[in-house]
Design goal:
Glutaredoxin, 2 domains, four-stranded mixed beta sheet, 8 helices, alpha+beta, Peroxidase, domain 1
Length: 186
Amino acid sequence: MSESLSISTGIASRYATAVFELAKDGNELTTLEKDIDAIEAVLSESEDLRDLIHSPIYSRQAQAGAIGAVAEKMGLSATVANTLRLMASKRRLFVLPQLMASLNNLIADEKGEVSADVTSARALSDDQKAKLTETLKASVGKDVKMNVTVDESLIGGLIVKVGSKMIDTSIRSKLAALQNTMKEVG
C-alpha cells in the first residue's frame, strides 16, 4: 500500500468514525446512508466536483463555500454538511471517496452486513444478483450488500471482493495466467 493512500485512509477513517458516532447518537443512520449514496452518485457523475476536492488551486474558503452550496443543494443532513465544510477548511476534501467507503463499512458492521464489490463483464440480471447474494451470504455468514459494476474488458466472468478476499473468475485473468505460463515455458 502506498504511503499517501495509507495517510488518506487514516484521515478518512478518523472523520468517518466521528460522523458515524454523531449519526448513531442522533438516530440518523438511515439519513447518513442516504447522504452517502447521494454523495457517491454525485462524485461519480460530476467531474467539476472531483476537480474541486482534488485541486490545490482553490482556497480553503472557496472549497468550503462550494462544498457547502453543494451540500445544501443536495439536501444533506447537517452532520454531513458541517463535516464537509470542516474538511474543506482543513484541506481534507481529497479523502472524500475514502470517507464514503469507511462510512459504508461502519454502517454495514452496525447492521451485521458485509459489503461485496462485484465487477462483471456484463450487467447482471436481478435473478443473477439474488443468487450471487445468497451464495455470498452462505459463504460469509452475514447479510451481503453488493456494489455491482460492469467492466467489459473482463470478457466474461466475475471479480468478487468481500473484505480482504478476492475471487477472480474473469476470462481476462485466465488469459493473463495462460500468457504467463506460456512465457515461462518458451
